[in-house]
Specification:
By secondary structure, the chain is an alpha/beta fold. The chain is built from twelve helices and nine strands. Strands 1, 2, 3, 4, 5, 6, 7, 8 and 9 form a nine-stranded mixed sheet that branches. α4 links the parallel β2 and β3. α1 runs parallel beside α4 and α8 packs antiparallel against α12. Keywords: Methyltransferase, Transferase. It comes from Meyerozyma guilliermondii (strain ATCC 6260 / CBS 566 / DSM 6381 / JCM 1539 / NBRC 10279 / NRRL Y-324). One of its GO terms (molecular function) is S-adenosylmethionine-dependent methyltransferase activity.
């Protein structure tokens, strides 16, 4: 039987505390749209499986919105340790997408936040389909740091939803006044990220270390869903682009929570920290600053596929 990715489990066993501290949560507006497209709506009693829930970053969104019938399956003991501290009353199981410890047709929705790229294959999809009730839906959601091939659609959808928050109004208005329906999510993301070039420069540098591990930005998860014989093609997609603040001294700490950075020896981490400092000194402008913090662009992306 296939098992959870070793790099993910090992790294998240060791960095779960910093992951919980420095990774961003999910904005309410995009979560609302995601849950609506999952047909969860206002029925707070529906059974939701959160797969690879980590420390509960997305779980908090579900709890805050009143969902009470939750079950979590997570392959990292370290992540579950922090999850239990955050949500002691939620049912949890140590397990993976390849052997979900739930009955057939037992959940109304399966949600994966920030994780499907680690196990995007037909074996996982078979298990996800098995536990979903007929008419149930499978959804994935990610926060992302810059534009990438994952925002390029393989085939046009009837509608792609765009949300914007806390951004320079003239850029957003230009997009909204123009034919935004003709813009790909990649093009929209690039236009927004071009407001803060330092974000893309830092992300691109860090991404040089992720070539040997599956990541959202690589887009292979999209190919799997598009070509799957288990599920029909992607039904809905949504994007949120927004600006937030990050303390300048937490930029490296944020990136250090990436599994492929966590796994590096300390000497390599010191080199990365030094190089990040150099990039920021070169690329960060006064308009990017707000006191001791930096203005950064963030994106969130979700996809939903139905069980047929």
């Amino acid at each position: 039987m296939t098992s959870a990715h070793k790099t993910a489990v090992t790294s998240f066993n060791s960095n779960h505390g910093s992951y919980d501290q420095f990774r961003p949560s999910f904005r309410s507006s995009i979560v609302d749209q995601f849950l609506q497209d999952l047909n969860l709506g206002n029925d707070k009693k529906k059974r939701i499986l959160e797969l690879a829930a980590g420390t509960g970053k997305f779980t908090k969104s579900l709890v805050d919105k009143g969902y009470t019938n939750l079950v979590v399956v997570e392959p990292s003991e370290g992540m579950l340790q922090t999850f239990h501290q955050n949500f002691p009353d939620i049912e949890t199981h140590l397990g993976s997408s390849y052997d979900i410890p739930l009955k057939d047709d037992s959940v109304d929705a399966v949600v994966v936040a920030q994780g499907f790229h680690w196990f995007s294959d037909e074996a996982s999809l078979e298990e996800i389909k098995r536990v979903l009730k007929n008419g149930g839906k499978f959804g994935c959601i990610w926060n992302y740091d810059t534009y990438s091939k994952s925002q390029i659609l393989n085939t046009p959808l009837p509608s792609v939803k765009f949300l914007f928050e806390d951004l320079a109004t003239e850029t957003v208005q230009e997009l909204l006044d123009g034919p935004i329906e003709r813009e790909t999510p990649f093009e929209v993301s690039k236009k927004i990220y071009d407001q803060r070039p330092w974000c893309h420069e830092v992300s691109t540098y860090i991404y040089g270390y992720d070539v040997n591990v599956p990541q959202y930005r690589h887009g292979k998860w999209r190919e799997v869903l598009q070509n799957s014989k288990v599920f029909p093609p992607i039904e809905n997609e949504g994007f949120l682009l927004y600006e937030s603040l990050i303390p300048e001294d937490e930029v490296f700490k944020y990136w250090e929570t990436r599994s492929y950075i966590t796994a590096l020896p300390d000497s390599d981490k010191q080199t990365i920290q030094y190089n990040l400092g150099s990039i920021m000194r070169d690329k960060v402008t006064e308009s990017d600053r707000s006191g001791d913090s930096l203005k950064r662009i963030m994106g969130t992306h979700f996809v939903v596929v139905p069980k047929e």
